[in-house]
């Protein structure tokens, strides 16, 4: 009888231990419902991001899914790429050429959607400048933000004019600082970016001496590859929300201008110029042939200026950068 009681006690202890182990495993088995933070950037060169952030569609969609949306301001494509590389954001907005350079130099990102075809970069000189064309920049100081479309625009413009990057003195300044340097007279020209560029035109009388929409490399959304592997459904939701923002701007042009002016802290006149005459939103958001054509055209100057490690790495980046399935499957709810 004593042996029987001992066996019963051992059985009970085993069951209790099993129950404890099962209880410890339960939270792990439900890890799919763990809190997640979706980290996005917004930028004044990306009007759709401003609409999305203000309307809070993603926050509403994810309210019951334990997903928090966190927004981080990108002051330029270079800053967005830095945030992606540092795992500080999951999806960031850049110029297409900036995404290409980042991937060619080892950043594990994919372009998942195209948000605009902008004419956001041009060569700008002060109101009183005697410089009237790109050839006149030889030997001059030009402000530009390396790693961004305005800088790549400058490289292409110089090449077209028969000049090399070494024929000018490039002062590497973030976009806002480049505008300030131009208006103070610290530099002779600026590879400008909207909406700062349009503001300088209106308020300081600055002049655009060279424009070429073909040298602007589209506005694109880039995601970390690890994020796409871990959370493809969140990436799809972001792409869908961007399409909703595109439609909202089309349906509410006056409200869109007012929102852009308020968020970017610019006048409505500047906002209207940028949004209605220098930003084409009615485009195919699926990354592909149109962007590839721009990349292949800019590739030689990127290699010549050592923006990419090798020509081979840049060609590989062109072949591997795009992930079109999210924009192909887009929907507007």
What attributes characterize this protein structure?
333 residues, alpha/beta, 5-stranded mixed beta sheet, 4-stranded antiparallel beta sheet, 51% helix, globular
Task: Write a concise synopsis of the structure shown.
Helix content is 51%, strand content 18%. The chain has 333 residues and is α/β, with parallel strands linked by helices.
Radius of gyration: 25 Å
Q: Work out the number of β strands.
A: 11
User: If strands are numbered along the chain, what order do they take across the biggest sheet?
Assistant: 7-6-8-5-9
Overall body shape? globular
Question: Which residues form runs of ≥5 with pLDDT under 50?
Answer: 1-32
Distance between the termini: 71 Å
Number of helices: 15
């Amino acid at each position: 009888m004593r042996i029987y009681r001992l066996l019963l006690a051992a059985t009970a202890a085993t069951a209790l231990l099993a129950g404890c182990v099962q209880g410890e495993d339960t939270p792990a088995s439900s890890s799919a419902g763990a809190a997640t933070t979706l980290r996005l950037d917004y930028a004044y060169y990306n009007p759709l991001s401003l609409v999305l952030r203000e309307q809070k569609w993603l926050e509403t969609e994810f309210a019951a899914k334990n997903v928090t949306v966190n927004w981080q301001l990108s002051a330029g494509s270079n800053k967005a790429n830095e945030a992606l590389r540092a795992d500080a954001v999951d999806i960031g907005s850049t110029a297409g050429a900036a995404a290409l350079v980042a991937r060619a130099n080892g950043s594990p990102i994919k372009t998942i959607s195209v948000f605009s075809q902008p004419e956001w970069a041009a060569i700008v000189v002060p109101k009183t400048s005697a410089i009237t064309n790109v050839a006149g920049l030889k030997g001059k100081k030009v402000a530009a933000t390396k790693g961004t479309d305005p800088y790549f625009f400058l490289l292409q413009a110089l090449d077209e004019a028969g000049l090399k990057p070494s024929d000018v003195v490039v002062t590497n300044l973030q976009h806002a600082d480049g505008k300030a340097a131009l208006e103070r007279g610290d530099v002779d020209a600026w590879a400008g970016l909207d909406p700062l560029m349009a503001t300088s035109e209106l308020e300081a009388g600055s002049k655009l001496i060279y424009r070429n929409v073909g040298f602007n490399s589209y506005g694109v959304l880039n995601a970390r590859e690890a994020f796409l592997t871990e959370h493809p459904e969140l990436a799809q939701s972001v792409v869908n929300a961007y399409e909703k923002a595109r439609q909202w701007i089309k349906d509410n042009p006056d409200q869109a201008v007012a929102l852009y002016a308020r968020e970017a802290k610019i006048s409505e006149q500047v906002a209207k110029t940028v949004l209605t005459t220098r930003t084409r939103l009615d485009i195919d958001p699926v990354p592909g042939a149109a962007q590839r054509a721009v990349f292949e055209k800019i590739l030689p100057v990127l290699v010549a200026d050592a923006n990419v490690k090798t020509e081979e790495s840049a060609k590989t980046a062109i072949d591997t950068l795009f992930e079109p399935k999210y924009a192909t499957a887009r929907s507007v709810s």
